[in-house]
Amino acid sequence: MTGSGEPKSSGGGRLLTFAAWSVLVLGLWLWGREITGVPPSPSAGMAGESAIPVPGLPAAHAPLAASVPARVDVPSLGIRAPVISRGLDARGAIEPPPFELSGTVGWWGGGAKPGEAGAALMVGHVDTVSKPAVFFGLSSAQPGGKVRVLRTDGSVAEFTIDDVRVYERARFDAHRAYGPRIAGRAELRLVTCGGTYDKAAKEYTANVVVSAYLTGMSAGAGVGAGTGAGAGAGVRPGAAA
Length: 241
Prior knowledge:
By secondary structure, this protein is mainly beta.
């Protein structure tokens, strides 16, 4: 995707306030409440969404046994990043990756594991005060692109991207953004900040959500740390989106 959906780097040293991440993680919190007892919205009936597979994309693979993710690769975007589990903070919102780990992706450990039935959620910063972060180019992903998740059992869950959307925060619908598209299918969401950067509010105006579904499985070459944009670099807290 291009235009307003493409995140821009911090450049001039702008800071993303906690409020921007609060809007992002609030949506994840609302969606996550479905797992703990709040009835979900029917995915097939959500406005603007489709439960019909995109023509030309591979058939879905049967869900895999549960296994924790260790690394996520998006070859077309040059992303190869370690994954850490994140929980909920005292306010009930999912914790984003630490600011000092701008090249790390956070997986919501309270939800589905990548490869098992349901929609697994992964979040990452788009930039820092000085440079791009792990999901800087996420909005340029294309349907048909591949996402590979190396899991701790040694297997690699292979996903195919079927949708890339920018959701305006002013009209954000957590069910549409994060809910499963097809019941029983193994799905994946990669999420970051997007839209345009509002200097007055010191936050981005939208969320970029890449949706993918499981289309294969292979044996991994071993679990090791990845190298996403800015991986391992020290970035001062409060500087990333």
